[in-house]
Specification:
It comes from Marinomonas primoryensis. Its EC number is 2.7.7.65. It catalyses: 2 GTP = 3',3'-c-di-GMP + 2 diphosphate. This protein is α+β, with helices and mostly antiparallel strands and about 575 residues long. The chain has 3 domains: about 160 residues, Sandwich (Immunoglobulin-like), CATH 2.60.40.2380; about 210 residues, Rhopdopsin 7-helix transmembrane proteins; about 150 residues, Alpha-Beta Plaits (2-Layer Sandwich). It contains 18 helices and 21 strands. The strands form 5 sheets. Strands 1, 3, 4, 6, 8, 9 and 12 form a 7-stranded mixed sheet that branches. A hairpin with a 4-residue loop joins β16 and β17. It is rod-shaped.
Length: about 575
């Protein structure tokens, strides 16, 4: 009984595997029926075959088993030469003119089209990107072959695609009207992406020139390399400038430049050299590998492009690890960077899997790197904006600290230290011009008596009123400050002694008329005395001039106060 079951199981297994083999071998490729209506075949089934020898002639290739697939294919890096097979049948009573499109032909090396009717080869066309005489079938980066399909005819198309490194292509079939519409709508999305990156690049270059912060420069370079790679890889350059083939192959090294500039941006934005040495050396090691691969690509671009996927994976792991480390250490910009770079890694991973032929051909997968670059660029622009806001807040804080250090807290006038520094700077500039400069010292009369009689609160009001009067009466060119308790000083550039005296008298008279109420029944008036002296333009000495003004001030007080006096020998 056991032997019988064993034989039965063996026969069943053999029948199953023969059925599976026959199903795979003899699977028929669906025929695309053309019935005279508008033709827009963008999703249909065809067959494909990978030539491992890369030298198989058509006569041999047509005998191979073609696997049924979608008209969109990504076969990876080990399928440099691939064949596609499309079955067409015209059921209409008149000849139909069709157009076979390969919208991604710009990245390939050679496309060959073979037309077979009833087993006979009736036409062959070769499009070689490096031979100008064959470029008649190229239009705005797309390969476009015209095909005549007589009534009731069944025609088989064989398309040979030879790639430089990664094999991926799409084959669409249109009538004349739909063909024109398809060509007109090409690359508008890519132009939009590149335009946005260009705008961000210009903005960051302007920021770099104004701030000299290197992160803006590296971010701008990242945008340039990313935008160039998108324009090259997704056909915008081919569309605008008719560039394709071997001449553009080395331009794909811009893909290696992009992560280099991104890692340099990380180094500067996170300040890893100063604060995070382990992460810093990890980023530098990654940059070294990318630079080495780019240099190698100058001599063997195809091999370099093969390594690029692996290096991209290493870069993603290191950059994400460093960002997570920054996030754990609560760096304020780590979360933004993790969000942007995480999205870039996600979309780029889809793209890498697509290029390797592991996942299906769709828009997001085939354009993953471009989408990832755009999303990351937008999120990184938030980091730039946040960084600018931090720097602006820091500058505001520094200005406020400087202002606190240079101003008197009660009157908000400059203090003695700031006045001395600024006045000496003005005198230094005036050495060559030798214009007249005058200094005045103002003192509140009987200020101690006011404090003792009415309290320090009223004394502060008197000081503030003097400060307000100086602000109102002094000219824009004058430098004035609270020099001591009840003492103020004014430096008057380009002012002679008599002119300074006139200004001092105007201030004195204004203050003489000030009345400060204490309550409903009482108020206080006060006066000031002012001493004025010229600065020696031959040997300008601020302290010497203030000393002379002090002597004039003492003279005013000795003469009865509430007056201005000029210094005289």
């Amino acid at each position: 009984m056991t032997t019988t079951y064993r034989h039965l199981f063996s026969r069943t297994s053999l029948i199953f595997w023969l059925w599976l083999l026959s199903s795979a071998t003899f699977a028929t490729i669906p025929v695309q029926v053309i019935d005279g209506t508008a033709v827009k075949l963008e999703q249909f089934q065809m067959g494909y075959f990978v030539d491992p020898t890369e030298k198989m002639p058509f006569s041999e290739a047509r005998q191979q088993v073609f696997e049924v697939s979608s008209n969109r294919l990504s076969l990876g890096i080990n399928a440099n030469t691939a064949w596609a097979k499309i079955e067409l049948k015209n059921t209409h009573s008149s000849t139909v003119k069709l157009y076979l499109h390969d919208p991604y032909a710009y990245h390939n090396h050679i496309l060959e089209l073979y037309e077979v009717v009833d087993g006979d080869l009736i036409q062959t066309r070769t499009l070689d990107m490096d031979r100008r005489e064959t470029l008649q079938w190229m239009y705005r980066g797309s390969a476009v072959f015209d095909i005549a399909l007589p009534p009731k005819q069944h025609k088989t198309l064989y398309i040979k695609s030879v790639s430089f490194s990664h094999q991926w292509f799409t084959l669409n079939i249109y009538d004349e009207d739909q063909s024109k519409r398809a060509l007109l709508s090409l690359y508008t999305d890519i132009a939009l992406l590149v335009g946005m990156l260009l705008a961000l690049m210009i903005y960051n270059l302007l920021l770099f020139f104004s701030s000299r912060l290197r992160e803006h420069f590296f971010y701008a370079c990242y945008l340039v390399s990313g935008g160039f790679w998108i324009a090259l890889t997704y056909g915008l350059l081919a569309n605008l400038f008719d560039v394709y083939g071997t001449m553009t192959l080395k331009w794909h090294l811009s893909l290696g430049a992009m992560p280099i500039f991104l890692l340099l941006f990380m180094i500067h934005i996170f300040e890893t050299k100063k604060n995070y040495p382990v992460e810093h050396w990890a980023l530098l090691l990654n940059i070294t590998l990318l630079v080495a691969n780019s240099i190698y690509g100058l001599f063997d671009i195809v091999t370099a492009l093969h390594y690029a996927s692996t290096l991209a994976a290493i870069m993603m792991v290191i950059s994400l690890s460093v960002t997570l480390s920054m996030l754990i250490r609560k760096h304020p910009m780590a979360l933004f960077f993790l969000l942007g770079h995480g999205l870039f890694v996600f979309f780029s991973t889809l793209s890498v899997l697509f290029y390797k032929g592991i996942i299906e051909f769709n828009y997001i997968n085939s354009h993953g790197v471009g989408i990832g670059i755009m999303v990351e660029a937008l999120v990184l622009s938030l980091i730039i904006a946040y960084r600018i806001r931090l720097l602006e807040n820091l500058k505001i804080a520094q200005v406020e600290l400087k202002l606190l250090a240079s101003t008197d807290s009660l009157t908000q006038l400059f203090n003695r230290r700031y006045f001395s520094n600024e006045a000496n700077a003005i005198l230094e500039k005036n050495k060559r011009a030798k214009e007249a400069i005058t200094v005045a010292v103002l003192d509140i009369d009987f200020f101690k008596k006011i404090n003792d009689t009415y309290g320090h609160g009223l004394g502060d009001k008197v000081i503030i009123r003097v400060a307000d009067t100086l602000r109102a009466q002094c000219r824009r060119q004058d430098l004035f400050a609270r020099y001591g308790g009840e003492e103020f000083v004014i430096l008057m550039p380009n002012t002679y002694l008599n002119e300074a005296y006139t200004l001092a008298e105007r201030i004195r008279q204004e203050l003489e008329n000030v009345v400060i109420p204490i309550d409903q029944q009482q108020s206080v008036s006060f006066t000031v005395s002012i001493g004025i002296a010229e600065v020696d333009t031959e040997t300008p000495d601020l302290q010497a001039a203030i000393n002379r003004a002090d002597k004039a001030l003492y003279k005013a007080k000795n003469n009865g106060r509430n007056q201005s006096q000029r210094f005289s020998l």
